[in-house]
Amino acid sequence: MRMVDLIEKKRDGGELSTEEIQFIIDGYTEGTIPDYQVSALTMAIFFQGMSEQERANLTMSMVESGDQIDLSDINGIKVDKHSTGGVGDTTTLVLGPLVAAVGVPVAKMSGRGLGHTGGTIDKLEAVDGFHVEIEKEDFIRLVNENKIAVIGQSGNLTPADKKLYALRDVTATVNSIPLIASSIMSKKIAAGADAIVLDVKTGAGAFMKSLEDSRELASAMVSIGNNVGRKTMAVISDMSQPLGYMIGNALEVKEAIDTLKGEGPEDLTELCLTLGSHMVYLAEQASTLSEAREMLIKAMNDGSALKAFKVFLESQGGNGSLVDQPEKLPQAKYKIDLPAKEAGFVSEIVADEVGTAAMLLGAGRATKESIIDLAVGLELKKKIGDEVMKGEALVTIYSNQEDIEEVKQKLYENISVTKEKVSAPTLIHEEITL
Ligand code: URA
Ligand code: CA
């Protein structure tokens, strides 16, 4: 096989076979096929697309390029959730304990990463003593005992994807649905999930800004998952404004605690119940979605969801009493309200820019070396559609610096208030199954 012939085939709209895709991914991972040939191929894919079969093959070749996590010693169907990324997205913190409380095994491998706030592990580390440096055997044992554990990223998962993603980043080929879908799915599958629930965000703060693009990405991932033997479904949810009220690490832990008690923000609660119901259903812990939802609501109301969170934190060295005394989480020195300049209705909260404001306070990492300030962040006091009086707080800023003019400026630029009444955006746009 010669790489040049495969590039030509794809350039002219042909379909690559299983063996051809395997040849490309193996050669690229090993370094026998150079970047410039793979660049040409990704550009050809960008214009010609990929068939369903090609997408499944590309995904599995990337899965097989590195280590795969073996979760077979964990009892039950392991369902993983993946979000395409948003701002102040506290769902993972809530969903883990929530579905664990009704018997779904949650075996999560998580990283830190860059972003507006830290990743799930950073947020959990706001809980004094909590750590994810645990042995694989302990991880498996904890999931079997408590139904939930989180371990830090280790091993060499999907090296082909790492290389390909970095190459796409500098060759203007990130934005290709088949390449994005196989990239995301390869990582989930290598991490050992039996079934996958996808939360595909749509709107200003999301990777996919239009509903049409979000739907296409969601369908692509759902097809790949099911074609390679993992039950997969997707929810398309709104990210035209941040989810919930809190954006920050300790702040989101507090928000997660409230939500696990059934006292959280309406949008965050609804999204967790929707995604959670699908997880419970795919894990075969309920025979219908409505039964699954009832189980989750009950777990919020009878304290078992919160208890699962406490047990989980303590099982990994954390101070579980924080669950009952969230005021003991790291606290910022200053709490500063951002007053509305005019009365009216909130019409826009540009999610990614507001996320950047949280990052400027120190809540997230701009570079891999940045150190996160767990205490700082933002609390939205108003969401889209809410009425606000002149001088009333739009946001409370939790800061450890006194001078936050830049943050205030950014927030004013990205939160709009109009005279006309505005309705709140739809939260759940669509659910996509095969
Ligand atoms: N996220 C990924 O993991 N891969 C992509 O290709 C795009 C977004
Ligand atoms: Ca939030």
List keywords for this structure.
globular, binds uracil, four-stranded antiparallel β-sheet, 13 strands, four-stranded mixed β-sheet, binds calcium ion, single chain, 434 residues, alpha/beta
Short description:
The protein is built from 16 helices and 13 strands.
Write the layout of secondary structure elements.
Layout (H helix, E strand, L loop, with lengths): L2 H9 L6 H13 L4 H14 L3 H12 L15 E5 L7 H11 L4 E5 L9 H5 L11 H11 L1 E5 L6 H11 L7 H14 L4 E8 L8 H17 L3 E8 L7 E3 H12 L5 H17 L6 H13 L2 H12 L18 E6 L4 E6 L1 H11 L15 E4 L6 E2 L4 E7 L5 H10 E4 L9 E5 L2
Parallel strand pairs: 1-4, 2-3, 4-5
Antiparallel strand pairs: 5-13, 6-9, 7-11, 8-10, 8-12, 9-11
Helix pairs in contact: 1-3, 2-4, 4-9, 4-10, 5-11, 5-12, 5-14, 9-10, 12-13, 15-16
The structure holds uracil (URA) and calcium ion (CA).
Uracil binds next to helix 9.
Bound molecules: uracil, calcium ion
CA-to-CA gap between the ends? Answer: 35 Å
Shape label: globular
Number of strands: 13
Pattern of helices and strands: HHHHEHEHHEHHEHEEHHHHEEHEEEHEE
- The total of helices stands at 16
Characterize the biggest β-sheet: 4 strands, mixed
Organism: Bacillus spongiae
Family: Belongs to the thymidine/pyrimidine-nucleoside phosphorylase family.
Protein name: Pyrimidine-nucleoside phosphorylase
EC number: 2.4.2.2
